[in-house]
Design a protein that fits this description.
The structure is a single chain. By secondary structure, the protein is mainly alpha-helical. The chain has 2 domains: 44 residues; 68 residues, 434 Repressor (Amino-terminal Domain). Helix content is 59%, strand content 6%. A two-stranded antiparallel ribbon has the order 1-2. Strand 1 and strand 2 form a beta hairpin. Helix 4 packs across helix 5. The two termini are 51 Å apart. 11% of the residues are buried.
């Protein structure tokens, strides 16, 4: 690392002048540090159970247009009846949501999301 040139501005502030290559290296190191911190935060959240890894198969099913509620329910290993009972709604209603015959209210979808241990946003 080169020693910087220190200059003093007319208002008394001291500034360090460094070669552009050194500046670019420092910027890259700061970006790398931000990436490491983001990685560490994700790993912490995974270890604490705040986040989970979702298999590509699940994501691909949703991206391919399958009903999101059904995909998550099956991924969690629940039957329609089990999900409905735990959410306090009827099994036929859950089935109708999954087949697109009916739309669930925000309150209903929130209850279903809670049982599935996902955010409401994950269902839309």
């Amino acid at each position: 690392m080169n020693k910087p040139t220190i200059i003093t501005t007319p208002n008394g502030d001291q500034m360090a002048v460094i070669p552009l290559t050194e500046y670019e290296r420092l910027i890259e190191a700061a970006e790398d540090l931000a990436d490491v911190r983001a990685y560490d935060e994700v790993m912490r959240r995974l270890a604490s159970g705040e986040e989970e890894l979702v298999p590509a198969e699940l994501v691909n099913r949703i991206l391919d247009g399958e009903n999101t509620l059904r995909v998550w329910r099956e991924y969690r290993g629940l039957t329609v009846k089990q999900l409905a009972e735990r959410a306090g709604v009827s099994a036929p209603f859950v089935s109708q949501i999954e087949t697109g015959q009916r739309e669930g209210s925000v309150d209903t979808m929130r209850k279903l999301a809670e049982v599935l241990n996902i955010s409401l946003d994950d269902l839309f």
